[in-house]
Input
Amino acid sequence: MSSRMGSPGLRLLGCMLLTAAAVVSWAPVALGDSISYDDRVGETTSRSDIKRVVVDHRHQKERLSVRARLTKVVYGVEFAVYLDTRRKNKGPEWKIWAYADSEWGILKVRGWNDQGRQGPVCGRASYTKSTDSVVARVTIPTKCLRIRSSVRVAVATIDPRNGTDWVPHRKTFLPPV
Ligand SMILES: [Ca+2]
Output
């Protein structure tokens, strides 16, 4: 009788522990001048699913690097990095966009939905393929975007036919680095 009564309790405990582990694994982890975020896989309709994002903002190196590990590279899916550099404005001031083996650029934007206008030409973007994933990366000199202090970053893979995978959440920034 006691084991019968105990097992639902144990199951509940196990469930709670699993939930706690899941919450911990998806929370952003600050690492000095960088932050990493493990995103769920399979939660998006975007064909290019984000697994992990690392933002590296080493002030002494005067550059901002954002890399995202994706399940696969899909041509025509846009890799987008939104930057909040002015805390007075809630939304992004800059959008960096890149397509695999194709063009990339920087746009000055006035919010999440702004098409933007051509920003400065600086930095670089790349896609690096490995056996089980692809790493999309952009690296920008901070001076070029007038980043003087910490910055907040949001990342998305915009699949025009299927949907968007957002990190950390739709139109939401990671904590500042
Ligand atoms: Ca994802």
The longest strand covers residues 50-58. Residues 1-6, 21-25 have pLDDT under 50 and may be disordered. Residues 28-167 form a domain with the Immunoglobulin-like fold (CATH 2.60.40.1190).
